[in-house]
Amino acid sequence: MTEKLSSLTVLMVSDLAKSQQFYREVFGFDVNEWWAERGGLEGVALKLFQAADPAAVRPNPAPQGGGYPVDVQVYTETWAQLDRLYEEFRSKGAVIAVEPIIYEEGGPWKEFVVRDLDGYHFAFGGTDGPKF
C-alpha cells in the first residue's frame, strides 16, 4: 500500500502581516493564522513564521556554477496554466525575477521566477504534456 503524502515549506519572514497580505493579494493564496496555500494542502502550501531577528530570513543563494536562486519550485501541468499564472502575478504587481524561459532539455521545460517581499524565489514551471 502506497501512502499519499503532502508537505509544506516553512519560510521565516521579516513581517508576518505584510507577507500574509502579499501571499493573499499577489499569489492568490488562501491565508489564515496557520498557513498560506493555493490548491489546498496538496497544492502549494507554506507555513509563514515571524522571524525573531531579520538575520533569520535566509533565502537560498544562486547555485554554484550560475543560474538563479530558487526557494520553492511549483510544477504546472501545462504551459497554458503556466502562462495564466505569469499574467496573473504580473498584473498584481509581482516582481518577476526571471521572465519565462524555455529549456529544450528535460521536456522541453518552461518556467519563470517570482520574488517575494523577503527575497524568496518561487520558480513556476513544467512541461507541456508528454514528450513524444
From TrEMBL:
PROSITE patterns in UniProt: VOC
InterPro entries according to UniProt: Glyas_Bleomycin-R_OHBP_Dase, Glyas_Fos-R_dOase_dom, VOC_core
Gene3D superfamilies listed in its UniProt record: 2,3-Dihydroxybiphenyl 1,2-Dioxygenase, domain 1 (3.10.180.10)
Domain VOC: 4-127
UniProt-listed SUPFAM superfamilies: Glyoxalase/Bleomycin resistance protein/Dihydroxybiphenyl dioxygenase
This protein's name: VOC family protein
